[in-house]
Amino acid sequence: MRKFTFILCLFLTFIEFADAQSFYSRRRDRLWMFSYGIGFSTYHGDMHDVLYDGLSAALGPSFGVGLRRKFGSQLSVRLDLNWYQIGGDDAEGGASAIINRPGGRDSGDADDRFIRNLNFRSRNIEMSLMATFNLIPVNGSYTRRPIINPYLMFGIGRSTNRPKTFLPGEEGNYTVNLWQIQTEAAAPVSSYPKNITVIPFGIGLRFKANRQIDILIEGARRFTFTDYLDDVSTRYPSIDQVVEWNGGAGSPTADIAVRVYDRSVEGGYPQRQLGNTRGNPNRNDAYYVFQLRLEMYLPDNFLNELFSPSRRKPKFR
Q: What is the pTM of this model?
């Protein structure tokens, strides 16, 4: 928090100094805005259903920075870089079933989260290009913008995908890289989606704090094209398959894979059999990012000043 406050003060000082250099710049519009902020993220998938479980059960921190360029009175384009954490834990889901099938817990295809007992945590970096659309047009000088302005966000981006889990008896120490082992009848490890395409779609509220600063409150869902944010998608393989897929008998990787692909035995339940339901392959995973941001209207000539050759020349010879 101290670092965040220091950075905020530094940028406020810079903006005030730059604005003081030109009184007449206040009469013109400013086209470039820089924003940064903190918030939280959560995910929607086989271990956590946002509609069923709510947002708070799988929260992780997030941090983002962005550079926005205005095009007209309502449309802007923003380049964002976000770091976020998502995760899920079947044990925290209790006995509530999101992938249960009729027939009860003991039926061949039944497998609720409490019995399944899987978990993951993933810390990723996302870069996206988003169009933002103000619902209230902003014409003329940026200083005449409304006090409150809702906006929509839509775009495309790429994110890393690095789910981890912990070994039995090492709760909280996420040391097993799930993207490097094969835990169910899926694509080979070489084609595991280590980087994914995302489609952000969300809403925000922009509050005018002063002449140069806006406060942004925004949230967006990231639609994905994979069901492996959590390393859970289809059905349980057999132990022999897991061993074969991960280097064969005696391989350290195979030993770890056998220990983490089926965690039901840790809760005293029978080991899952070949073909039992492990996940739901009929829907892709998604995640949400919610942030509180500060957005600063940059001076008109900040790009020229930033890339000016004169800045790289010594002032004295």
A: 0.82
